[in-house]
Input
Amino acid sequence: MLQHRISPGEFRSPYSRLGLSKSSQRLFGGARKGSAVLLGESPLTRGLCGKLNASLPPASRGLPMRFSIAFLSIILLTSLAAAQNTSPVTSRADQLKGGALEKAQRLSPPQPDKLERDIDRVEHSQILEWISGGLNGFGLRFGGLVTGSGFAVGPAYSRPDLLRENLHFRVSAAASAKRYYNVDTLVSFPRLLGKRLRADLYVQHADSPQMAYYGPGPNSQKESRTDYRREDTNLDLQVGWRVHPRHVMVGFIAGADLINIGPGTSAVYASTDRVYSPVQTPGIDVQSPYSHFGPFVQVDFRDHRSDPRRGTNFLTRFNYYSDQTDLHSFRRWESLLEQYMPVLNEKRVFVVRARTEFSYTRAGQVVPFYLQPTLGGADDLRGFRQFRYYDNDSLLINAEYRWEVAPVLDMAGFADAGKVFPRPGDISLTHLQTDAGFGFRFKSRGAVVFRIDAGFSREGVQIWFKFSPPFPGLPFPGLYHAMF
Output
């Protein structure tokens, strides 16, 4: 049997005319040579082609081998063409991926506009820290006097880092052009006995020469305003035990109050002692030193005490006030409930607050007017003048809707309702004094340091500028501080 070998000339197709790349041409040439060798030397090929060649005329011998090579070549060409057709797709995908990576490398964070830069500069500056008294060391104290004193400023020294932050010490003073002034000192041990016990000692002296008084009870008239002078010297000790490390505290409060009442210094309003008798205004003629003592309970689930966005705060305390004559001794039960409800990722917050103050006396005893609960002013009925209503008991309800305009600014719409009454049994939701308004809250490091509120009521419009949060805690007799 004749052995047939394929010469390169038998398969001399011009590869470049097929549109193959050089690498494909080299691959196809290698496949052709391998096919020729395989077809020429394998036993199967020799046997099959030998029988076919023997049955054909001499001129047609070698055709079977040519057909076999042609068939195999078509298969190889189809495979190479398919591989070549898919390569641009892969290359295009790689190009898109590379372009995306290059674009990502060229991307830069968006640049804030001028307003955003100014807000950020104020937020991270020490201006608001000075206003809020948050600086460690010497600083300035703004406000902190009774509302109506005018703009007040003074020096302050604060050290919250003593004894590895186990001792907080602060001393400050402030005065206004109307001759109001206040000097106070706070010594606090917030982490005694494994952070379970807290003790705070607060001492202050204040002079307020033009305190407003409109007469007793809920029916007093705006035109009946008088003024009196009040001097306070107060010593308060609060000791609290954390039943729960974060949410529940019980304890007691003890203190002494030396209060002196005198004629007011206003050139516009009459002095209170010239208009109201001791029967109408108990304690206007004689004052005596007071001591007070009583327990308290606080349940606090607010997320942040300085600027809450969610949670509940409940505080109740009972104090026994005793004077030396026992004519003006009384007991007082105060309660406060606050609920914060966030919406839209905590950028907007609904707030509801309710506060009650009840006074209890024995036969022959009366509460002096200068220690009676009051309503009216920047912290309760914001559409009425400061200390607009005096009486033995009070009820207050506040509602606010706050929304964040910028990291350092909130706006708020609010509504207030409340009243004073002579006996605890007279509490009701009828004949409430109401107002509504809006406000701006300026913040630093998550705390309100300054606010402007405008309140509207049947008695007109009141504008308030305060260096304090909108809802302070329960006040102490000194009027200038709240230790909760």
